[in-house]
Amino acid sequence: MTAALALCVAGVGFADSITIDGVAYEDVYVRESASSYYVQIPSDGRAITVAKDKVDPEDVSISGDAEHRKALLNEWKGNNAEHQEERTEEQRTQAREAAAKERAAALELLDKYAATQDRLQRAIVKSKTLISTHMQLSEANPPYDSRYKGKYEEHFVTEHRYDGHRFYHSGWHWGDVLLFNTTSRERKGLRSYLWDGKATYQFSSSELHGDVSDGVLGLRENVKKPPFAFNRFLSNEPDGYMLGCFQGHRERIDVTLRECPNTRVRDEMESVSGVDCHVIEGDTRYGKYTLWLDPEHGYNMAKARIERKPGDVHYTSNDKYGDTFLPAGREVTITVDNVRFEKIDDTWAPMEGDEVDHKTFPHGEFSTIRSHTQLTDIILDPDHEALGSFVPDYIPDDAIVCIPGRSYGPAGGPDGPPTWREWRKRQAGGGE
Q1: Structure pTM?
Q2: What is the spatial distance between Cα 202 and Cα 187, in angstroms, rounded to a whole number?
Q3: Residue 86 buriedness (CB in 10 A; 0-12 / 13-18 / 19+)
Q4: Same domain, yes or no: 310 and 359
Q5: Which residues, 6+ apart, have CB-to-CB distance to 192 below 8 Å?
Q6: Angle at CA of residue 290, ends 287 and 293, nearest 5°
Q7: Beta strands 189-195; 347-360: pairing state
Q8: Arithmetic mean of pLDDT over the chain
Q9: Do residues 279 and 326 both lie within one domain?
Q10: pLDDT band, residue 10 (cuts 50/70/90)
């Protein structure tokens, strides 16, 4: 047991203390994070931050006397307010300049990250993901109920194509689909989305459709702009985090941090898988973000942590529906770890990684979703025209075509929706 822990246990009637560079600070208020100690000095309102690796653990004592620590903190707050009032304009200017310098350093690193991601996204990317979910939810946390309880496994095989304007996505899905229905690999479901610059094609097919075995195609023509941008679409895909797109976001993680006014880079680099990485952090509208960028592997994301508290944006829809905020009593922590890189041509790419999305709810309930993703193929700078990347030739002839806003009778009847074969034939003949 360290001296600090011993004092925490015994800790009645003692204040915190710490020794930094041979200088002992006693009767102070000490807080800690994973990498630093934060020392607040009640007597004069000053504050000191020091990296943990600069301090011997035996030189830190944190009291277990909560009331005494609260009194010290209140004293510090009072003196700190006075201390802030005494700051000169020169000191304020210096503080602003220091913050601006930290932000500029962070933005420069984010530019390097973005350059790699832009190249990876304008490509053909294939992946497979295993998602393991453990839920303990009930009617106590609506809209959930007792069905949201237990352990589930889902498998995804996905493909993305993007040329900076048009995009295509397809995903095979089997396992505990929607948590309540189990689909075998042999009868896995396919869902795809294509925007070819003129129309959107949203297709889905699986045993869950019952007698509609060849699937349903939602078709919107004369679409000048898709309802979702590619990154927004990617954020809802199981492999999106590998390319910096997290669930519920409109934009990639570098854009989110760039929009944050207090984005900064830590003074000290931190080792991730044996590589010293730059650490960028910011208090964004989506919560507190920490991002570790690997300079030896294209400034890709080697590790990430997102912490959301009540009031943070939890989900961003399109402009029609706006933002959804995390309600009181709920917290979310998302982590990305164990990222493995490979060099594709002259570009480093994240080829494998893990994401954990842990949510806590009132009444001790929770949801934990663990994802393991492998990128199985990346084709950089593909010839999309030669490959037919944005041609809807994958849709089965007997798929049912539905046009939003139109009413149809039963499928197969005289007033029923046309099949994809019939639709193409009518279009070729100059009418529907």
Answers
A1: 0.74
A2: 20
A3: exposed
A4: yes
A5: 168, 169, 170, 171, 201, 202, 203, 204, 394
A6: 145
A7: unpaired
A8: 85
A9: yes
A10: very low
